[in-house]
């Protein structure tokens, strides 16, 4: 019993001491005083060379600059859209060395010397890429905000299939993937369309794949 009593007192004293220490270290603040937010350290500027749509661009960028912001804010290629800015919607998809990349999650310095293709580099109104023309024919867009990312992703998808890369929808990961609606929906699932033009998008991709014009 004596041991338990001493233990109880010890715990009580510990709590009292802790409360006293917290009260003693609390910093009083006068009414109306402004709380200063923590300072954000300045970024480091580095020279970055990007090959965008066949042209070389040399930029001095904060190392925290994303590829998306480098394209939009520094090179003024605004076809690449900023949607969620968290890599969840696919609106900012571009092609880097032929492979599709969500540019909001890729730092510009990570793409030093890489060949970047944006929607502007795929085709022009006078000479559109086959995928761009197919999207128009099949009404693969409505508001158009997600369309640049959809088209760049679709071009990347057909290249993946051509190279034999399997997806989660591939029944046999060794066999050559098929250009099926099920396969295309799985591969394009990272590109969201709020207007719901998914079936038309699949039709457009299927047409281009059938023509062999990737």
Overall description:
- The structure is a single chain.
- With 214 residues, the chain is an alpha+beta fold.
- It has two domains: 77 residues, Beta-grasp domain (Ubiquitin-like (UB roll), Roll), CATH 3.10.20; 92 residues, DNA polymerase, domain 1.
- The protein has seven helices and five strands, in the order H-E-E-H-E-E-E-H-H-H-H-H.
- It has a five-stranded mixed sheet, with helices on both faces.
- The termini are far apart.
- The N terminus is likely disordered.
Low-confidence stretches: 1-9
In the CATH scheme, the class of the largest domain would be Mainly Alpha
Shape: globular
Tally the helices: what do you get? 7
What is the typical, i.e. mean, pLDDT? 88
Per DSSP E runs of 2 or more residues, the count of β-strands stands at 5
| Adjacency order of strands in the biggest sheet | 2-1-5-3-4
**Share of residues in helices:** 25-40%
* Rg, Å, rounded: 27 Å
Number of discrete domains: 2
Q: Beta-strand percentage?
A: 5-15%
Q: At CATH's second level, what is the architecture of the largest domain? A: Orthogonal Bundle
Looking at how many chains there are and whether they match, the oligomeric state comes to single chain
SSE order, one letter for each helix or strand: HEEHEEEHHHHH
CATH fold title of the largest domain: DNA polymerase, domain 1
Largest sheet: 5 strands, mixed
Structural class: alpha+beta
CATH superfamily of the largest domain: [2Fe-2S]-binding domain
Q: Alpha-carbon distance between the termini?
A: 84 Å
């Amino acid at each position: 019993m004596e041991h338990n009593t001493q233990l109880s007192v010890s715990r009580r004293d510990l709590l009292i001491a802790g409360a006293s220490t917290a009260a003693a270290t609390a910093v009083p603040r006068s009414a109306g005083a402004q709380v200063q937010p923590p300072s954000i350290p300045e970024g480091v500027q580095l020279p970055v060379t990007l090959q965008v749509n066949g042209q070389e661009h040399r930029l001095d960028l904060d190392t925290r600059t994303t590829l998306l912001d480098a394209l939009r804010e520094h090179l003024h290629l605004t076809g690449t859209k900023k949607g969620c800015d968290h890599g969840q919607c696919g609106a900012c998809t571009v092609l880097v060395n032929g492979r599709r990349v969500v540019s909001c999650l890729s730092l510009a310095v990570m793409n030093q010397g890489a060949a970047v293709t944006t929607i502007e580099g795929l085709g022009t109104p006078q000479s559109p890429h086959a995928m761009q023309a197919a999207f128009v024919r099949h009404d693969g867009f409505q508001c158009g905000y997600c369309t640049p990312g959809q088209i760049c992703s679709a071009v990347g998808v057909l290249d993946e299939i051509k190279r034999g890369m399997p997806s989660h929808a591939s029944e046999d990961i060794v066999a050559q993937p098929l250009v099926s609606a099920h396969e295309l929906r799985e591969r394009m699932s990272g590109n969201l369309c709020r207007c719901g033009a998914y079936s038309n998008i699949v039709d457009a991709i299927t047409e281009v794949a059938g023509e062999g014009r990737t």
